[in-house]
Amino acid sequence: MNDLAGAHGRVRRLALPAIGISLLQTAVLVVDRAMLGHHAETSLAAMQVAGILEWSLWSVFSAFEVATIARVGWHVGGKNRAGARMVTLLSLAVALVTGLALTALTPLVIAPGHLGQVFTGASPASLTEAAAYLRYALGASPVVFVALGTAVSLQASGDSRTPLLIGLVSNLVHIALNYVLIGGAFGIAARGAEGAGMSTAFTFVLEAAAGIVALTSRRRPVCLLPDPRSTDVLDVRSEARTLFRIAVPAVTERALYHLGFLGFVLLIVALGDVAMAANQAILGLEAICYNSSEGFGIAAAALVAQDLGAQRPADARRASRIAHLDAVVALSIAGLLAWCGRSLLIPVFTADPVTIALGCAAMPLLALAQPFMATGIVLSQSLRGAGRTRAALLVSFVGAVGVRLSATWLFAFHLRLGLVGVWIGSTCDWITRSAVLALLLKLKPLGSEPRP
Fold it and tell me: How far apart are CA 354 and CA 392, in angstroms?
């Protein structure tokens, strides 16, 4: 009983702050959506374009962090501080280079002709605002990726409280800047979506700087400063090869997932600006649930990596199981609360009665999807913590590309259910992922993989 209680406490000590971190990171976009929705409906519709592009590009380019969690956690579990430091330095270097590459591509991404060709159902006004937002948000990609890299390194070492504190402070700054830049305050001209992009960029600058400072403390299991007492001889090339072996399937997974998700978004765009705005309002609520699952998933990935690094496969399986069950309970409750309170929650993001009615009609599907979303996210993160990124790639491809697109087209267009059909399609995706992941982990439990 004491061992079980200790295992639950171990998971929750890492998971609860990690949930807070995920929610605070998402709060940057949620606050943007809410404040832009009350600024103008066109501004909120613009986030259907800008928010999806931003999330997809950042997610794909920062997928290297999956390998960071697995390898930093492995070295921390094995009491190898020098190895953890080397992995973190390599990861931050990759984060900086990929961020600079995305910044260089930003003018091509936001070119008016290109956005219009992809998002054909969006109005010219919403496309203009989306480009203004992305100019600043994507331009800040190097600091965004460095901020994410420092956060996952701290989390993989078992410290999720420091990133939580950093996220809390930076989000308070973000809200204040949004108030000034979106609607205009203190004599400053209102900038709408462009102001939100400027605010978002500055928020991540703060997070990156604070994360680097935190990683210079020698009291932490992961420290960027060299240890003068260390006599370990490290094989940088071997560690880099291991990192990339884990990271390449993770990057491929993210790319395929977001390619499928882009097709999913194009189906929503085809429904028009009202459906786009209503979907953004629901996404603002789903983001809270999604990132709560991510918090449990990050805890599972970090603890699985640490336990496997310390040669404790039974503990790794138990940590994954506890994180999974906790996530299912938490998200099921959150989904029911969101459904019951839909008439109060949707108006937070928009004041348009037609948009509110459309958003409320789709809310039961959000509630239904939550336990399956929790299962899909936590079990996928457990696989990644064990370095089994190829298996996670398979599941993501089947769900996001195979199931979500076909089911969304069937229900939203063929059966003419509109936005409700869109959410039926995404729910089918999460149900499929949950089933496939449960089968994979039953056939090959955590700990049966070879030592990296």
Answer: 39
Query: How far, in Å, CA of 155 to CA of 150, rounded?
Result: 9
Residue reference for tokens 């994507």 = 138
Residues in CB range of 240: below 8 A, 6 or more apart: 90
Separation between Cα atoms, residue 230 and residue 369, nearest integer Å: 49
Tell whether 449 is covered by a domain.
no
Query: What is the rounded average pLDDT of the residues 336-353?
Result: 85
| Structural domain boundaries, residue 139 | 2-226+236-443
203: phi then psi, degrees, rounded to nearest 5: -60, -45
Q: Higher model confidence: residue 26 or residue 390?
A: 390
Q: Is 333 part of any domain? A: yes
Lowest mean pLDDT among 102-106, 130-134, 211-215, 347-351: 347-351
84 inside domain? yes
3-state per-residue secondary structure call for the chain: CHHHHHHHHHHHHHHHHHHHHHHHHHHHHHHHHHHHHHHCHHHHHHHHHHHHHHHHHHHHHCCCHHHHHHHHHHHHHCCCHHHHHHHHHHHHHHHHHHHHHHHHHHHHHCCHHHHHHHCCCCCHHHHHHHHHHHHHHHHHHHHHHHHHHHHHHHHHCCCCHHHHHHHHHHHHHHHHHHHHHCCCCCCCCCCCHHHHHHHHHHHHHHHHHHHHHHCCCCCCCCCCCCCCCCCCCCCHHHHHHHHHHHHHHHHHHHHHHHHHHHHHHHHHHCCCHHHHHHHHHHHHHHHHHHHHHHHHHHHHHHHHHHHHHCCCHHHHHHHHHHHHHHHHHHHHHHHHHHHHCHHHHHHHCCCCHHHHHHHHHHHHHHHHHHHHHHHHHHHHHHHHHCCCHHHHHHHHHHHHHHHHHHHHHHHHHHCCCHHHHHHHHHHHHHHHHHHHHHHHHHHCCCCCCCCC
User: Could you tell me if 170 and 143 are in contact, meaning their C-beta atoms sit under 8 angstroms apart?
Assistant: no
What per-residue string of b and e applies to 363-380 under the rule 16 or more CB within 10 Å gives b?
bbbbbbbbbbbbbbbbbb
Does 450 map to a domain?
no
What span, in angstroms and rounded, lies between the C-alpha atoms of 325 and 343?
29
> Helix 65-77 to helix 236-269 angle, to the nearest 10 degrees?
140
Tally of domains in the chain = 1
Query: What's the pLDDT tens digit per position in 257-291?
Result: 777 777 887 888 788 878 878 887 787 778 778 87
Work out whether the CA dihedral 121, 181, 358, 282 comes out positive or negative.
positive
